[in-house]
Write a structure and sequence with these properties.
The protein is an alpha/beta fold and about 350 residues long. It is built from 13 helices and 6 strands. The chain is elongated. It catalyses: phosphocholine + CTP + H(+) = CDP-choline + diphosphate.
Length: about 350
């Protein structure tokens, strides 16, 4: 018996290239595409027969909530091949509303998500049996909340009834509507930012008056930022000055204590200066005070053979001066008596 060959693409094992775009049919098999149950898919399938999981959506402003949903879809079964359908701008604007990103931008965003193996462009809003058979889809992955659109209470109702629906969990706190709400709420901030980055008022659909107002606000904000920068620098400068002042005061106190100690050691009650002054005063008093005269004159030696001769004038001149006026008068009288004797 001739073996049947499968030409279904295998899941990507590397992430060096983006996901492929789907062709007319991306799984051309000579053998019939046998229907799988959820239990069979969870037990595992042959390598050449991956479980083909389909997830669709708008994927505008592609964010982490989208990526987490696709991650769950990719990991529903051990061997899976994830196909992602992206609706066109025409269908989205008709049934849901205006998008921020164009369809080509959204296609490329999905191609570069690591969990996606294949992207279907211009995906249908409601899945038909023909579309499911064309792409050999085994299961459809989406959150379990009923999705009412295009006149239907739940566009996945017939998929659930056929046993082909596998639920995923939504990521709370993030959605395309939330992101758009933030932009609308802070419209002035983003308009001013883009004006500052070089966009024109016409590109932003901003009136002449609002343009001038935004530009003035940008200038005010720049001035505030400069003032804030100057304040921060001033605070830093003041802090450094205070730190230096503290160091200087501490050093000044240390030097002052050292100076006062040296001063007291030199000029204190028992200081070195007092001792030096006393020693020098003693030396000066000793140097300026006169030497004391002898208390009594030695006795004259009278010889019997010779009569005493009167003292000469030179001898009188060499004698020490009298210690008192009385002595001086006594000496003068003695000198006069001697003269009279000679006469």
């Amino acid at each position: 018996m001739e073996e049947l060959e499968h030409t279904c693409p295998q899941p990507r094992t590397t992430l060096i290239e983006p996901a492929i775009f789907a062709k007319e049919t991306s799984c051309e098999c000579r053998a019939p595409h046998e229907k799988l149950t959820v239990d069979q898919a969870r037990l595992g399938t042959p390598v050449d027969r991956p479980v083909r999981v389909y997830a669709d959506g708008i994927f505008d402003l592609f964010h982490s909530g989208h990526a987490r949903a696709l991650m769950q879809a990719k990991n529903l079964f051990p061997n899976s091949y994830l196909i992602v359908g992206v609706c066109s701008d025409e269908l989205t604007h008709k049934y849901k509303g205006f998008t921020v990103m164009t369809e080509d931008e959204r296609y490329e965003a999905l191609r570069h998500c690591r969990y996606v193996d294949e992207v279907v462009r211009d995906a249908p809003w409601t899945l038909t049996q023909e579309f499911l058979e064309k792409h050999k889809i085994d299961f459809v992955a989406h959150d379990d909340i009923p999705y009412s659109s295009a006149g239907s209470e739940d566009v996945y109702k017939h998929i659930k009834e056929a046993g082909m629906f596998v639920p995923t969990q939504r990521t709370e706190g993030i959605s395309t509507s939330d992101l758009i709400t933030r932009i609308v709420r802070d419209y002035d901030v983003y308009a001013r930012r883009n004006l500052q980055r070089g966009y024109t008022a016409k590109e932003l659909n901003v009136s002449y008056i609002n343009e001038k107002k935004y530009r003035l606000q940008n200038q005010v904000d720049r001035m505030k930022e400069k003032v804030r920068t100057v304040e921060e620098k001033s605070k830093h400068f003041v802090y450094r000055v205070e730190e230096k002042s503290h160091d200087l005061i501490q050093k000044w106190e240390e030097k002052s204590r050292e100076f006062i100690g040296n001063f007291l050691e030199l000029f204190g009650p028992d200081g070195t200066w007092k001792q030096m002054f006393q020693e020098r005063s003693g030396r000066m008093i000793q140097a300026f005070s006169p030497h004391g005269s002898p208390g009594s004159s030695p006795p004259r030696d009278f010889s019997p053979s010779r009569s005493p001769s009167p003292p000469s004038r030179w001898a009188i001149a060499r004698t020490s001066p009298p210690s008192s006026p009385k002595g001086a008068s006594a000496s003068m009288s003695s000198m006069s008596e001697g003269d009279e004797d000679e006469k």
